Each structure stands twice: as C-alpha cells, then as structure tokens.
Amino acid sequence: MSEFVERSAPTVDELVIGLVKRVEKYGVYLDLLDYPGWEGFVHVSEISLKWIRNIRDYLKEGQRDVFRVLRIDPATRQADVSYRRVSQKEREDKMRFWKRKQRLLRILKLLSERSGRSEEELKRLIVEPALKRGLSLYDVLLESLEEEKLPEWMELDEGLAKLLMEIIGQEIKIREVTVQGVLVMSVPRGDGVEVIRRAVSRGLEAARKEDVLITTIGSPRYLISVRAEDAESGRKVIEKVAEACLAVIREAGGKGELQLK
C-alpha cells in the first residue's frame, strides 16, 4: 500500500498517530499528526481497563503514540480516540508505516534542495506513479537500492535519477536482519516427499522478491530464513511463506505448524 494515500478526515476505527499536547484529570488532548488541524481526545476510560492512579503513567505531554478513532466531528475537526483498543502489533505496524512516510518526505525534501526542483514536481515524478500502481514507495526505493537501479516506470532524467539513488543510499538501510522460523510439515502418504516439495515451491512463490531460503533441518523440520529490514518485517514474510506451504500440506491431508524463533 502506498504511504501517500491521503484523506481529508479520519474515519471510525482507523488507527492514527497522535501527539499528546495536554493531560487533564479526565483525559488527554492530542494533535492528530496524520490529519493536520484535527484534534483528538482520549477519555480516561479509553486509556486502560485497569484503575488509573496517574494518567501520565500511560500518556504524557510530547509523547507520540497510536490511537483508534471512535467518533469524529467534521464540523469541529475533533475526534474521540482510544489508546487501550490498540493491540501491540497494531501499534508497532502503524508506527513503522508512519516512520517510513517521514523518511520518504525527508528524501523528497533533500532531493528538492539538491536538485533545485520543487517538492510538488518531485511528487508528480516519483510519488504519483507509485500511488497509481498501488505500490509502497518505500519498498520501491529499497528494491532500487538493492538492484542499483530505479524501476523503468519512474521516468527521471539521468541527473535526477543519480541524485535520488545517492540520497536513498544515505537514508534507507538495505535489508540486513536475518529472521528464522522452523516449519514442521508431515504428509502420511506415499508421495509425501513430493507434496512437501510442492509446498516449499509454493512458499517461495509467495515470498515473491523477498530474500527467503527454505532448507531441511531433518524431516519433518524445515528452516525458513529471511533477510529483512527489521525483525518484524521478517516475521511477517515468514508467516506468509509458512501459510502458503501449509495450505498445500493441509490439502494433501498432512499436518504442520510454524515455530518462530
């Protein structure tokens, strides 16, 4: 999904980034960073299910965190939001997505400063083509860094393309974390080995361009290794690969499970 899909107002159940600006006895006021000009309010009952002695044990001025939208008032540009209704995984995913967008905005700003092109022009040349294709621009630039070239659909002149590659090399880290998981697969029938081979092939297909290896530890255990930008991204890839493998195993009447390290 593109980082630059934008809406004028938050929607109910959406996850948003809020910056705490004021803490009161009855709740917390926020600036919604995804929606400039919008204010969020967290009632004390939406901070935790536990009894709260001091709200600042959970949220304090200047803290940036993830909240779930409960209600909105477009007329006043205010939203009631919840802190306690966001899971840890949702919090990590949303914050990672938001940080990626901030890094992309920094890349565009640096490119504008060094090339003399306006940020609006650069968005037309770089952001909009990715947006039309429904692509994550961060993933596109990361892949460009790894392959040492920009995609053909990003039609930039030679000088601008070279400058962009230099900047993303400075601002984006190439995948450098290795995450592993053990996939246990067994098929109690004569062609079980062939079924497992098909499962592994299906899993690698699901990985697409991700850097994934599946090797035998000793039947029925198989090691999935993924090189990723960070541990959470690697775990997501492993889960996707494992699910593709296990779908084949289950179709054949076998059993399996993923054991994350």
What does this protein look like?
A hairpin with a 4-residue loop joins strand 4 (64-73) and strand 5 (78-82). This protein has helices at residues 88-115, 119-132, 137-147, 158-171, 192-207, 231-251, and strands spanning 15-23, 27-32, 39-43, 64-73, 78-82, 177-186, 211-218, 221-228, 255-260. It has six helices and nine strands. The chain is flat. It has three domains: 15-85, OB fold (Dihydrolipoamide Acetyltransferase, E2P), CATH 2.40.50.140; 89-171, Orthogonal Bundle (DNA polymerase, domain 1), CATH 1.10.150; 177-260, EIF_2_alpha (Alpha-Beta Plaits, 2-Layer Sandwich). The strands form two sheets. A five-stranded mixed beta barrel has the order 1-2-3-5-4. The model has no long low-confidence stretch (mean pLDDT 92). The protein has 261 residues and is of the alpha+beta class.
Notable features of this structure?
single chain; 261 residues; alpha+beta; OB fold (Dihydrolipoamide Acetyltransferase, E2P); DNA polymerase, domain 1; Alpha-Beta Plaits; 3 domains; 5-stranded mixed β-barrel; 4-stranded antiparallel sheet; 40% helix
TL;DR of this structure?
The protein is of the alpha+beta class and 261 residues long. The chain is built from 6 helices and 9 strands.
